[in-house]
UniProtKB/TrEMBL annotation:
Organism from which the protein derives: Noctiluca scintillans
SMART domains: HELICc (SM00490)
Residue ranges occupied by any Helicase ATP-binding domain in the UniProt entry: 1-105
Every Helicase C-terminal domain range: 121-284
Domain of life: Eukaryota
Protein name: RNA helicase
Family assignment from sequence similarity: Belongs to the DEAD box helicase family. DDX5/DBP2 subfamily.
Gene3D superfamilies cross-referenced by the UniProt entry: P-loop containing nucleotide triphosphate hydrolases
EC nos: 3.6.4.13
Length: 318
């Protein structure tokens, strides 16, 4: 099967050259595909199968106008596949408009978010000034500061600035490290990901651009230097470790200003029988009651019976 990938950050002529050679399928980001459509360089009137993957994420990132423009360019008589990890109102609305009498396949409980049982989740409650020191300590415990280490870690920050700052701090300290975020061009991102896959770098610092769809063998630690903005993103972030039956650690830093995010994390931890520290419970108890999904919420409504928690290890085995 001949396929072309169309995405921003890569040269348009290269993508168009491959498209003009004749392809069976187009895999595209909405923005770049719309650029080609508006320029009259690509036609979709021969499309008979349309796949929308991570529809919730695309809507959350503001791509709904581009998606609707694409929908107007494809034939109405088609086979549509619609994939989403969450099912909020805006996603349901779009699905109802573009799907005709669809079959719905649900994996797991859509109303309950839970992490992989093979991930040991740990939350460290600390002040903002201690975070950098703790990063180095955790990498040391995981053996990632040794030149011969086979371990790999993925560190998440919420801003591009912090992503670059932390990555530079690690590099200056001799840690094989790179970073990816929205301001990095595609070639730089690909090089960083390849470095982590081959083991040339041990630590990749990223914004949520890497939270979904990233499947790299051997990532033993996910560190949320900054907590995710909503509980769905938290679950997706920690899911980058413990892939394909492996074990992994997910460690999250929370400061007093993150109290509103603690409750959702506690709920996710309890659903997989994780140990919740008294410090985390106290932080969650200090948060005001608010909206529980997305934004400044922290979880989903409802409580579940907890069973016996596993004990927390004092070292990280990666």
């Amino acid at each position: 099967m001949r396929c072309v990938a169309m995405y921003g950050g890569a040269p348009k002529p290269t993508q168009m050259s491959k498209y003009r050679q004749g392809v069976h399928s187009i895999v595209a980001c909405p923005g770049r595909l719309n650029d080609f459509l508006e320029g009259g360089q690509v036609r979709l009137d021969g499309i008979f199968k349309l796949v929308l993957d991570e529809a919730d994420r695309m809507l959350d990132m503001g791509f709904e106008p581009q998606i609707r423009k694409i929908l107007n360019k494809v034939p109405r008589k088609r086979h549509t596949l619609f994939f989403t990890a969450t099912w909020p109102r805006e996603v349901r609305k779009l699905a109802s408009e573009i799907l005709n009498r669809p079959y719905k396949v649900m994996i797991g409980n859509r109303d309950v978010l839970k992490g992989n049982q093979d991930i040991t989740q740990i939350v460290k409650v600390l002040d903002a000034y201690s975070k950098n020191t703790q990063v180095f300590e955790l990498l040391r415990l995981g053996g990632l500061l040794r030149p011969d280490s086979a371990g790999k870690a993925l560190v998440f920050c919420n801003t591009k600035r912090m992503c670059d700052q932390l990555s530079n701090n690690l590099l200056r300290s001799g840690v094989p490290c790179s970073s990816i975020h929205g301001d990095k061009d595609q070639g730089t991102r690909d090089e960083a990901l390849a470095g982590l896959k081959t083991g040339r770098i041990k630590v990749l610092v990223a914004t949520d651009v890497a939270a979904r769809g990233l499947d790299i063998k051997g990532v033993g630690l996910v560190l949320n230097f900054d907590p995710a903005n909503n509980i769905e993103d938290y679950v997706h972030r920690i899911g980058r470790t413990a892939r394909a039956g492996a074990k992994g650690y997910a460690i999250t830093f929370l400061t007093p200003s993150d109290a509103h995010k603690a409750r959702g994390i506690i709920e996710v931890m309890e659903r997989t029988n994780q140990e919740v520290s008294p410090e985390l419970r106290a932080l969650g108890g200090s948060a005001p009651v608010g909206r529980t999904r997305g934004g400044k919420g922290g979880g989903r409504p409802g409580r579940e019976k907890r069973s016996k928690s596993r004990s927390k290890s004092s070292s990280l085995s990666m």
